[in-house]
Please model this.
Amino acid sequence: MSPAGDLWAELHVTDETLKTTPLDALHRELGGRMVPFAGYSMPVQYPAGVLTEHLHCRAHAALFDVSHMGQASIHGPGGAAALERLVPGDMVWLAPWRQKYTLLTMAHGGIMDDLMVANLPRPGGHERLFLVVNASRKHIDLPHIEAHLPAGLRLERHDDRALLALQGPAAVGVMAGLAPAVAALPFMGVGALTLGGVPCLASRSGYTGEDGFEISIPADRAEAVARLLLAQPGVMPAGLGARDSLRLEAGLCLYGNDIDETTNPVEAALMWTIPKRRRAEANFIGAEPILAVLAAGPVRRRVGILPEGRAPARGHTEIIDDAGVVVGAITSGGFGPSLLGPSGGGPCAMGYVPAGLAVVGTALSLMVRGKALPARVAATPFVPHRYVR
Amino acid sequence: MTVRYTKDHEWVRLEDGVATVGITEHAQEALGDVVFVELPEPGREVDEGEACSVVESVKAASDVYAPLAGRVVEVNQAIVDDPALVNRDSAGEGWFFKLALADEAAFGALLDEDGYTAFLETL
Model:
């Protein structure tokens, strides 16, 4: 049997070259299988395994360490207007204690990263925007943002903070048991709260399609908060393996796979992040090429793809049309344990196909191990979102 | 009945010229939850070391190799229907395929239990 790619990574990469999160010791104590990810040593799974962790998240609550992601704040008056130069979303009208998903766009219309932005008013009316960016891109995003801040604004990197995600239908009960006010947070609401005496910032959001919270914690208190959450009934630790299968089922993009510098928001099916006002103003980096693609119609589109059989089709799998021509590729693919509900799981994927084929139900073939396997374009999410709105 | 092993983490059980092949406990543990298995066609001739089966976990796909040259005479549909069986009983019910061996003597050249255990320690 050939060891799969990431098994080799575990066996052969020296840990000294990797960064660790504040929860590294806890992961090892819990039996986490550590792998390199975005320059960090991260748990891909714990002894329960990816399948169990994934299913437990959708049934109860799972705790993920996502401290590798970049956390930063833009401080100063006019921060929202300044950020609107760099993102196509509505920042100026983002209400206090609310968060929004948006994109950092590039001059040619590509996507630098996807991120969350929260409006956190400080005492005395001081404006502050709190950002969470991808681990693999923070070294590009943050200098880019900083370089574009006008005088009077500064970027603070929160390298002294950890980030945990508690996701699943039981998450709100767990959190409310520790901080009652959290139950009143709406989806994409943000609040300052105390967990076990530790001051935290929590948003009601996540990357699984389930209800849940992302919790920013001072690094030196993070292990204590993690232990507190894990001690609550129904909470299980989950690693990056489950995080990936959960977000894939939820139809959520992974930067580097489904979106990158070569994809524009139109073809990526992310135009919902660009409201009418921003399209009209067209004053964000890359506005001209993006709006041009919108007007002309994109050449290709990101769609959900369901293999008809049981074989998963992974990233880079070629997509073939009924004439046998290669027309696209899978950008994320794997196995969804919750795909069929109680009946179990099945393969699911996302990829780009020519716009004309981007219709739910269109038959395609996927080249897996030299064979053309039947598949069809499908709507995402594959597993319905259960956000509490 | 003896069991022998390969450095590719397959086990082989030989009985009346037919070798039953599966993946070891070490392999199923390293792989994680198996979600899909592809088995060779019965009747297919395979060379020693030829990739003839695929086992997939949630995260990745791995090849399973023919430990010895021979002809596939039977495959285990049970693991196609219930891939988790590979994790639950890798040494027994989770077998992959059976080969009619081209050369039974080659079985003796495979690693015995001690040899495989020693090999695992080098990893």
Summary: The two ends of chain A are 47 Å apart (CA to CA). The interface with chain B takes residues 1-7, 11, 44-45, 49-52, 54, 241, 244-245, 310-312, 314, 334-335, 337, 345, 347, 369 of chain A (CB under 8 Å).
